[in-house]
Amino acid sequence: MSALLRVSAGIDAVNTFIGRSVSWLILIAVLVSAGNATIRKIFDTSSNAWLELQWYLYGAVFMLAASYTLLRNEHVRIDVATSGLSKRTRDWIDLLGHIFFLMPFAGIMIWISWPFFWVSFRTGEISVNASGLILWPAKFLVLAGFVLLFFQGVSEIIKRIAVIRGDIEDPTAEHELPPAVEEMETGADLSERMKNK
Predict the structure, then answer these.
(1) In what residue span(s) does the Tripartite ATP-independent periplasmic transporters DctQ component domain sit (predicted)?
(2) pTM, entire model
């Protein structure tokens, strides 16, 4: 299990680096958007390339940071429904969800997005918009995002098995419930204490 945990740690390190790095693309996208708007207002000119660059940048953040979001346990979940269950039951739900839902979905998306990207790359596909950008980098982001998500799924499965076996402490314990659910539980505890006074 220690060798698998080292593999998991390596995957986590790569996705952490990528996730933190691509977050800077939001700033670049905002600057591109502001610059484009300013040029359009002052010089009454614009280019579709600037608009397409914005969605390239947002798409890069969305696709490449998805695996980091999973690593940090900050993705959309049904914690409101499962928060009343025991920790061990939630661990099993996570493990089975990763194995039977996340991994097949990510695998299918990799299988579908490879030809989607490759045909675009091979043909030099360009946007149909005037002065538009080449499209294969955007299509590559779809493929890359699902590859990263697939490997992060492998890492999460390894860690969840280790947690269930008692080999490691839960690395997501600090992110176990989203803030809204924690506030609901805190509010419920507070109202219960007020009744008892």
Answers:
(1) 31-161
(2) 0.82
For 11-67, what is each residue's pLDDT tens digit?
999 999 999 999 999 999 999 999 988 988 898 887 888 889 998 999 999 999 999
- Residue 50 domain flag: yes
Assigned domain for 179 exists: no
Expressed as residue numbers, the domain containing 33 is 2-75+84-173
Q: Which residues contact 64 (CB under 8 A, 6 or more apart)?
A: 18, 19, 22, 141, 144, 145, 148
List average pLDDT for each run of 10 residues in the chain, which is 197 residues long.
92 95 94 90 85 92 94 80 84 93 97 96 90 91 97 96 91 59 53 55
Rounded to whole angstroms, the Cα distance separating 63 from 92 reads: 27
CA dihedral for 98, 61, 77, 87, sign (positive or negative)? positive
